[in-house]
Amino acid sequence: MKLTGVELRKVALPLVTPFRTSLGTQTVRDALLVRVVTDEGEGWAECVAEDEPTYCPEYLEGAADVIRRFLLPVLFPLDLDPAAVAPAFEHVRAHQMAKSAVETAVLDAWLRARGLSLAAYLGAVRRSLPVGVSVGIAETVDALLDTVDRHLAAGYARVKLKIEPGWDLEPVKRVRETFGAGVMLTVDANTAYEAADIPHLTRLDAYGLAMIEQPFAPGDLHTHARFAARSSTPVCLDESITSARDAAAAIRMDACSIINIKPGRVGGYLEARRIHDVARANGLPVWCGGMLETGLGRAANLALAALPGFTLPGDISATARYYERDVTAPFVLVGGEMAVPSGPGIGITPDPEDLDALTTATEWISAP
Ligand code: SMG
Ligand code: MG
Question: At what angle do helices 269-281 and 96-113 cross, to 10 degrees?
Answer without folding.
Answer: 100
